[in-house]
């Protein structure tokens, strides 16, 4: 420590670095703006949504996620429940079938709800936007599966 205090330039450099790190941490954690997802911005630009359409899309998206989050969590709970039986030596196939058929059914219903969601959003578009929308939604949904 004595070597650092004897060399004033090193001491000043260390103090400067500590202060800049503190400023960076404060800036990083107090920033309230969330950057938009690049995929979402590209989607909106590709379709060329108006401000009213964007508001409608945002409202419907929020409603959709409010409905879907509990369903996705239910599937995750079912999977967790099944895999908690992993250590059991004599696990019957009916237990496995019960869990997998249940989450398969929920996923089937989720896919139907997703399709209907995009079908409803499609009604908000004009003729010039439909082709771009259909293409973008198809890419988005198939990319998610990979």
Question: How does this structure look, described?
Answer:
The radius of gyration is 26 Å and the shape is flat. It has two domains: 1-33; 38-145, Four Helix Bundle (Hemerythrin (Met), subunit A) (Up-down Bundle). By secondary structure, it is mainly α. Helix content is 82%, strand content 0%.
Keywords:
single chain; 146 residues; Four Helix Bundle (Hemerythrin (Met), subunit A); 2 domains; 6 helices; 82% helix
Major sheet: none
Question: What is the number of strand segments?
Answer: 0
CATH topology of the largest domain: Four Helix Bundle (Hemerythrin (Met), subunit A)
Mean pLDDT across every amino acid position: 86
Which structural class matches the secondary elements? mainly alpha
The outline comes out as flat
From the alpha carbons, calculate the radius of gyration and give it in angstroms.
Answer: 26 Å
Number of domains: 2
Enumerate the spans where pLDDT stays under 50 for 5 or more consecutive residues.
Answer: none
Give the count of helical stretches: 6
CATH architecture of the largest domain: Up-down Bundle
Secondary-structure element string: HHHHHH
Report the portion of residues in β strands.
Answer: under 5%
The separation of the N and C termini measures 55 Å
**Name of the CATH class of the largest domain:** Mainly Alpha
In which range does the helix fraction lie?
over 70%
